[in-house]
From TrEMBL:
Belongs to the UDP-glycosyltransferase family. GO terms for molecular function: glucuronosyltransferase activity. The lineage of its organism: Eukaryota, Metazoa, Chordata, Craniata, Vertebrata. It comes from Denticeps clupeoides. The chain crosses the membrane at residues 491-514. This is UDP-glucuronosyltransferase. It is a single-pass membrane protein. The keyword Membrane applies. SUPFAM superfamilies: UDP-Glycosyltransferase/glycogen phosphorylase. It is found in: Membrane. It catalyses: glucuronate acceptor + UDP-alpha-D-glucuronate = acceptor beta-D-glucuronoside + UDP + H(+). The keyword Glycosyltransferase applies. The gene is UGT2A1.
């Protein structure tokens, strides 16, 4: 009996071991630059969970295709973008702010619109190369994916999912009431208390702020609808003419890279999942020479300094201003700077082409973080509780920094007007005024006080969609309404008509009665 029980256990164990693990087949359409670094963390988590992951990447990619495949694989599609290289266009885009920092909003807007032409072409070429490449489409069809994970930075991913007939998950940063999630995702957004870009206010708006916010909503809506028109033209040769929201609106889940530790509260539909900070991790040990440098700072600690790729375009004078300011503080500085170096560098400052930012911010000696306010960096600062000196340039950066400033966890400087003494003073303040650290720790504690980790949440919902072949039960019916149905304008018109009719009838009736009375009295008078 003993033996048979053992045998049974053995077989049972074996059955458990060889029971097919529920794993899926994921197609990832990543964005470039920081978007890919962000998405990559999810890809690695999916690989860790034994899913098969394919990353679709174009041959002109500026970031993704240089990544080492670790457990996932690339599927390339060729695209030729001679004059619309993404790097070049982004440099031009950044130049709008870097070269003409003093222009008015109107001038800036007209320059942006000019460059937008280039982006529209990029968009079109990209979509056509992806959706018209029969070979690649066939390979993708054969792969029988369970889900498409799409960063809208890459154009037309939502259409690809539609063509492959695979459930779509959209991953993006909620940019403070920006348009895609509002118009295509049906996330309720009210201009009275949800600020949109670009703003110089929080969710507590006075009358003029609300006027500005309202107009920005209108402008964004207009942009999306003109873009939809553009899309219709692009796709008429590929697919049934369709609109942006037709396809985006089909997304099963919206993975939003923010959270209430770092966004203003607002309502959202049940298929919105907030995963802000999912890329942050406990720090790993630093490389030996870096660790030695950090340790040499002693009591004063270190300052981590990274402005992303902004410096590539910045003139020598600004670099020197930074270098001279950094030379005046007692902390050691680790400065991530690619391209031209400043002329003189104080001994407390070291320049690196690349720094392990998350590990440095998690280092106990780190006192402050100088950043341009990209969302990845801000979340790492929140995760590790490091106060911030923000030097934003464009896009969502000013808003990101403004939010931290309003919470008392950051000081904001102007990249072009800033002098060395301003930076010295700002650094001194965030390091020596304990309120900054305290406020940042408060945000950090909120961030860590969640029932599940953001990365687990992301993975769970991706797996959920694969298990259940979608998440249609979370989809609000607002998607199927026209705008006048959505605002109940048809109902209002109907009710007004009913009320109008009743009023009309009552007036008529009154008139009738009055006339009858008058007539009678007149007749009476006459007979008298
Ligand atoms: C993934 O597969 C490996 C080896 O087959 C196994 O050891 C591991 O437990 C699996 N992980 C998960 C999350 O299922
Ligand atoms: C599709 O992409 C593949 C992979 O990059 C490439 O070899 C092929 O030439 C492309 N086909 C067309 C029609 O562009
Ligand atoms: C912008 O204005 C500031 C003064 O407000 C001036 O110092 C700076 O040189 C100007 N920058 C450019 C590029 O014109
Ligand atoms: C926002 O507006 C206030 C007051 O109008 C001003 O003091 C502040 O400098 C502005 N901030 C930015 C980032 O423009
Ligand atoms: C809502 O729209 C979707 C796609 O546009 C469609 O598949 C679905 O049948 C519609 N549902 C209703 C109740 O009309």
């Amino acid at each position: 009996i003993m033996i048979s029980v053992r045998l049974f256990c053995f077989i049972w164990h074996g059955l458990l071991l060889f029971h097919p693990v529920q794993t899926g087949n994921v197609l990832v359409l990543p964005g470039e630059f920081s978007h890919w670094h962000n998405m990559r963390v999810i890809v690695e988590e999916l690989v860790e969970r034994n899913h098969s992951v394919t990353v679709l990447v174009n041959t002109a990619s500026t970031t993704v295709k240089y990544a080492k495949e670790k457990g996932f694989r690339f599927q390339f599609f060729s695209v030729s973008l001679e004059e619309h290289d993404l790097n070049v266009m982004f440099t031009e885009f950044m130049d709008i702010w870097v070269q003409y920092p003093n222009s008015s909003i109107l001038e800036t807007a007209s320059r942006v619109l000019n460059i937008m032409d280039g982006f529209v072409t990029y968009h079109r070429v990209m979509c056509e190369s992806m959706l018209k490449n029969k070979t690649v489409l066939e390979i993708l069809k054969q792969s029988k994916f369970d889900v498409v994970l799409h960063d809208p930075f890459t154009p037309c991913g939502e259409l690809l999912a539609d063509m492959l007939d695979v459930p779509l998950i959209v991953a993006l940063k909620l940019s403070f009431g920006f348009t895609l999630e509002r118009i295509c995702g049906q996330m309720p957004s009210t201009p009275s208390y949800v600020p949109t870009q670009p703003v110089n206010f929080s969710d507590r708006m006075n009358f003029l702020d609300r006027v500005q916010n309202f107009l920005q909503y209108a402008f964004h809506t207009l942009m999306v609808f003109t873009q939809m028109h553009e899309m219709k033209n692009i796709f008429s040769g590929i697919k049934e003419p369709t609109t942006l929201c037709d396809t985006f609106g089909k997304a099963e889940i919206w993975l939003i890279r923010s959270y209430w530790d770092w966004d203003y509260p607002r309502p959202f539909p049940p298929n919105f999942v907030f995963i802000g900070g999912h890329h942050c991790k406990p720090p790993k040990p630093l490389p030996k020479d870096m660790e030695d440098f950090v340790q040499s700072s002693g009591e004063d600690g270190i300052v981590v300094f990274s402005l992303g790729s902004i410096f590539k375009n910045l003139n020598l004078e600004r670099r020197n201003t930074f270098a001279s300011a950094l030379g005046q503080i007692p902390q050691k500085v680790l400065w991530a700077l690619s391209g031209e170096k400043p002329e003189t560098l104080a001994p407390n400052t070291r320049i690196y082409d690349w720094i392990p930012q998350n590990d440095l911010l998690g280092h106990p000696k780190t006192k402050a973080f100088i950043t341009h306010g990209g969302s990845n960096g801000i979340y790492e600062a929140i995760y590790h509780g490091v106060p911030v000196v923000g030097i934003p340039l464009f896009a969502d950066q000013p808003q990101n920094i403004l939010f931290m400033k309003n919470k008392g966890a950051a000081i904001m400087l102007d990249l072009f007007k800033m002098e060395a003494k301003d930076l010295v003073k700002a650094l001194w303040t965030v390091i020596n005024d304990p309120s900054y650290k305290k406020n940042m720790m408060a945000i950090s504690e909120l961030h860590h006080d969640q029932p599940t980790k953001p990365l687990d949440r992301a993975a769970f919902w991706i797996e959920f969609v694969m298990r259940n072949k979608g998440a249609k039960h979370l989809r609000v019916q607002a998607h199927n309404l026209t705008w006048y149905q959505y605002y109940c304008l048809d109902v209002a018109v109907f009710l007004l008509a009913v009320v109008g009719l009743i009023v009309f009838l009552m007036v008529k009736m009154c008139c009738f009665c009055i006339r009858k009375c008058c007539w009678r009295t007149r007749r009476k008078n006459k007979t008298e």
